[in-house]
From TrEMBL:
It comes from Paenibacillus violae. Gene3D superfamilies: Protein of unknown function (DUF541), domain 1, Protein of unknown function (DUF541), domain 2. It comes from the Bacteria. PANTHER family: PERIPLASMIC IMMUNOGENIC PROTEIN, SLR1258 PROTEIN. Pfam families: SIMPL. InterPro entries: 26kDa_periplasmic_antigen, SIMPL/DUF541. This is SIMPL domain-containing protein.
């Protein structure tokens, strides 16, 4: 909460009989994403657990090495999910053991947004058969969040002056109180959930624009 102290002895406008206008202000700014977060990996299945474990581990190792060749450091590659599941078939109401399924997903973060398609294609070419998510974000969103907050405050002030002018009253120049509302989550312009096939043409993935929003509640005295 941002508070503005008011000296009520400085002006007769802020006497104990003064009234208050309460308004909501909203601000929106757009920004180009500069970070991509990709979740992808390998799903293997079969009747022999040790065999598919080895197959899965080899594929994941190949993916990691290939991604690192794109100048993505190892610390930007993190296991997001690892599961071993028993798979059954159901025949005439009976449960019949079919084998095992291993899912190993990696989360890869890169600040080279323009290489997102190449990253996906490289991983697929080296064994990835699942791409579960592609998200675009801003590495340091504080600058844009502050811009949106400034726009929200200006919006609130404009609304308060409009109300005051319509009522024919004098609005205080400085708000008596400002409260930031919970920040709404910005939309993700591109989020893929699909299986990608290797192709001679790089997969086109567009980051679009991110929208950053802010909202405030502001109180002004008037007389």
């Amino acid at each position: 909460m941002y508070g503005y102290p008011i000296d009520k002895t400085a002006s007769p406008s802020y006497s104990k009989h003064s009234s208050t206008i309460e308004v909501l202000g909203e601000g929106t700014v757009t920004a180009t994403p500069n970070r991509a977060v990709v979740d992808l990996g390998v799903v293997t299945d079969g009747p022999n657990l040790q065999a598919i474990q080895a197959e899965n581990a080899k594929a994941i190792s190949n993916i990691i090495q290939s991604v690192m060749s794109l100048n993505i450091p190892r610390e930007k590659i993190q296991t997001q999910d690892y599961r071993i599941e028993i798979v059954y078939d159901y025949v005439d109401g009976k449960q019949i053991f079919r084998g095992y399924k291993i899912t190993h997903l990696l989360r890869i973060t890169t600040d080279h947004v323009d290489q997102t398609g190449k990253l996906v294609d490289t991983a697929v070419a080296n064994g990835a058969n699942q791409v579960t998510s592609i998200q675009f974000t801003i590495a340091h969103p504080e600058f844009y969040e502050n811009q949106a907050l400034s726009v929200a405050i200006q919006h609130a002030r404009q609304k308060a002056y409009t109300i005051a002018n319509t009522l024919g009253v004098t609005l205080g120049a400085i708000p008596s109180q400002v409260q930031e509302s919970p920040r709404p989550a910005g939309p993700i312009p591109y989020m893929a959930t699909a299986k990608f096939a290797a192709s001679a043409v790089e997969t086109p993935i567009e980051p679009g624009q991110l929208t950053i929003k802010a909202a405030v509640r502001v109180w002004f005295h008037f007389a």
